Fold these 2 entries.
Entry 1:
Amino acid sequence: MTGWWRSWRRARTLERRAIPDDLWRLTLARYPFLAARSAAKVDALREMATLFLARKEFTGAGGLVVSDAMAVAIAAQACLPALELGLSRLDGFVGIVVHPDAVVARREHEDEDGVVHSFDEELSGEAMHGGPVMLAWRDVEEAGESAAEGYNVVIHEFAHVIDMRGGVTASVEHVDPDSERGRWLAALVDEYEEFADRVDADEETFLDPYAAEALEEFFAVGAEAFFVAPVDLEAEQPRLYQLLAEFFRQDPARQLP
Ligand SMILES: [Zn+2]
């Protein structure tokens, strides 16, 4: 019965709450990397974004009012990494909090000697287990222009959501090294270590050096570039491109319409 009810509800959502044509066209024009795939895939993305909008709750913070155009922009970019994996990979949280600009968060870090240091960190986005997902609208709005640098805050945070929900990078310590996932993860760790060495050596990298912070950041930063600047990522890190293509079951460098 659940299956029947779900598909009935899905059909009703698509019928009643479908993203209007003009709003969808505007979204594709503002974020051209969304449209860089076959017409059938762009339609599938629109459908997924519609269902996403029906399931998630947007809240504006700091006086921001989340308009339809803002919600659709976020939904479409959030669904892009889940397009071939299924919307359920973005379950596990409901709330999306949109701030006008980056948020300053007070952080504490305990060093090896047990001394606690506190510092301020500027956040353009944040994803936590169970949500909510926090996004800075200024960064989301500029995602069309910042795509050339491989930067995309929505894809970054929703790559974290997919990673956390699937326990992907977190399983690196206890996955069977001979399993398919074990081999995939070992290759990702190799790429990560090579990248971290380049950052340590002050080499110029296409990926944001922030990716060297931790394996999960490498995955999320890699995912941003994979979806918004796939040709550049593939040129510099073909093996990482291949690993992400396998994971997301997409090949954006070759999916142009
Ligand atoms: Zn991150």
Entry 2:
Amino acid sequence: MSSSTIDVFEAGEHEQVVFAHDPISGLRAIVAIHSTALGPALGGTRFYPYASTDDALQDVLNLSRGMTYKAALAGLDLGGGKAVILGDPATIKTEALLRAYGRLVQSLGGRYRTACDVGTYSEDMDHIARECDYVTGRSVAHGGAGDSSVLTAFGVFQGMRAAAEATWGEPTLAGRTVGVAGVGKVGHHLVRHLVEDGAEVVVTDVDRSAVDRVLAEHLGVRSVADTDALVAMTLDVYAPCALGGALTDAVVETLSAVVVCGAANNQLAHPGVEKQLEERGILYAPDYCVNAGGLIQVADELEGFSFDRARQRAAGIFETTRSVFAAARQDGVPPAVAADRLAEQRMRDVGRLRGIWLNR
Ligand SMILES: NC(=O)c1ccc[n+]([C@@H]2O[C@H](COP(=O)([O-])OP(=O)(O)OC[C@H]3O[C@@H](n4cnc5c(N)ncnc54)[C@H](O)[C@@H]3O)[C@@H](O)[C@H]2O)c1
């Protein structure tokens, strides 16, 4: 493993960062536990060919912090963590590597619970679970919740309804033009909710087959060549559902949409973009607030999965988004700041109760 130039003690507020190496299976992994103030840290395992150990470390530190805020705002009894496995999953992912990783997660004694993320799937969680008790997002065949994108999309739609209500007075997208950038696992489910609600939907994706699938399913949906074209057209709502960093200075300047609400994590390209959005009169529904449906789904599995219970909880994203907008109005801050404050307040108020000793 190459040495890191990031000082983990300076880089964030993380409780614990664990590096693991199993040379025979090729496992090189980092687990970052950002906070356990509200419960065990939950977050997926990203399996990705990072250019360097530093890149992997930076990613896991950022992502684990985001999970803390997502779980806190969603009202879950969970903290925030994340793991990365370095390497190309297409070439190095084996049963032995996944089981070596399972033993690493087991060694943390439940302080960190893992799930799927980019490059890992429910079947991988099944292998990890052969060595480890702290795994969720398992396959349906093993009693798991399966694909989390179903409730992620449902939750984003609920957040978008709350944004529509705050903007136009009614919690519906009927008659509005919504641009969806990225119609992968989450984006294509989101399109279905929007079409059913009576929205005009325009999509784009770098993968032509993903666009074709959506156009074949929904006759009224249109597509444009790329995200630049989507952002430049007349829209009511822009829904980034591809990668992070979608809201750059240039995009915010160009957008005609008055609502931004999508599934992608870390949409703000840099701190300060939330203010620019506000100055342009664009209502931004904070990413981790509206995309918590998948986390809610895998968290439910820890209690024995009930899709109906998880769906009902994900429906609560409507109220949560509403309360974020209300707090933003009351405090005179952008919704992204209000969401952070609400999450931090819950961590303080509920986390403090751990200080009351109980014999359990
Ligand atoms: N899957 C979940 O449950 C979940 C939960 C929370 C957040 N998210 C986030 O939502 C986003 C989408 O997740 P997903 O599971 O649907 O992933 P996915 O890989 O299935 O879909 C992403 C889609 O975006 C497309 N894409 C990539 N770059 C693009 C670009 N520059 N322009 C247009 N399209 C582009 C890809 O071709 C793909 O079809 C990600 O940012 C993810 O982190 C997903």
